[in-house]
Write a structure and sequence with these properties.
By secondary structure, the protein is of the alpha/beta class. 41% of the residues lie in helices and 25% in strands. Strands 1-3-2-4-5 form a 5-stranded mixed β-sheet. The radius of gyration is 13 Å and the shape is globular.
């Protein structure tokens, strides 16, 4: 299950080779659509990617820091550094293809 991110644990939770943080809110309908997609991807790719969730209502300063202006947004971290952000709803296959591409790019730069 994805780790809940707060300002207190963000730094330690993104030190992995790759971390994907889901910026979401309880009232966000599209976020609820993405939940099962991310859960399935975590089950399939959790050995390669660390999945986490950040509630923007509880962590507005972090949302601002990573320029999250709309949700759902996914911020991809490589070795503790935010590299890319994608916003919106994605079908599982499309998001999996994107994440596999990010993994391949990360392994080339490692």
């Amino acid at each position: 299950m994805a780790v809940t991110i707060t300002k207190d644990n963000l730094t330690t939770e993104v030190t992995n080779k790759m971390t994907v943080i889901d910026f979401w809110a309880p009232w966000c309908g599209p976020c609820k659509i993405m939940d099962p997609v991310l859960e399935q991807l975590e089950a399939e790719m959790g050995d390669q990617i660390h999945f986490a969730k950040l509630n923007v209502d509880d962590n507005q300063e972090l949302a601002e820091q990573y320029h999250v202006l709309s949700i759902p947004s996914l911020v991809v971290f490589e070795n503790g550094v935010a590299k890319e952000k994608v916003t919106g709803i994605f079908p599982k296959d499309k998001l999996k293809t994107y994440l596999n591409k990010k993994l391949a790019e990360a392994s080339q730069t490692a």
